[in-house]
Amino acid sequence: MKTQAASELAKAGPKPSAWRENVEAIVIAVVLALLIRTFGVQAFKIPSGSMLETLQIGDHILVNKLSYGLKMPFFGEPLVGGKNPRHGDIVVFAYPEDPRKDFIKRVVGVAGDRLEIRDKQLYRNGKPVPHEPYAVFKDPVFYRKELSPRDNMGPITVPEGMLFTMGDNRDHSSDSRYWGYVDVRSVKGKAFMIYWSWDQDRFRPRWGRLGNFLS
Fold it and tell me: Which of 13, 21, 35, 189 has the fewest CB within 10 Å, making it most exposed?
């Protein structure tokens, strides 16, 4: 019996060492994390106040990279899905003037939309855009179109394959009013949740913001 058992163990081969098992587990975990980050969900930190009050400086958000289809790195066209961003979506994208930087804004115009801003009121296809509770205006001054596109702009028509984006903090946001359209292919995903928030001024977490979903 002992001889037979020993023979069976010999055929099964040597048992992997604990060190090797740990290394394999770590490698698998890293690969899975990279796959999730590349194709699934990615974390971003909010560094500026352009999306106040929706997003605070120090908010850490999760972005669903599958919202607009499965994309391969370095290729803009989706392999699977291919749904385009819609009005009101909060999106992360490569900044058109420096693709190394990520920007986050709200989509206010999609391909074919005719947009105009009159005294800070946004018009889409000839009608004022209603129900923008997220839009914040903190400067009572109104700039003429000749001085700045902030408060008066257009009309313009969003080209095919492009988006027009604005920050919720309308008077203090660098967005499409100043640097133009966002290529749909540069969109990295849709922001959907705040998972952590740190108030640097008070040096403490904003507990009430943790787990909040974005809309």
Answer: 13
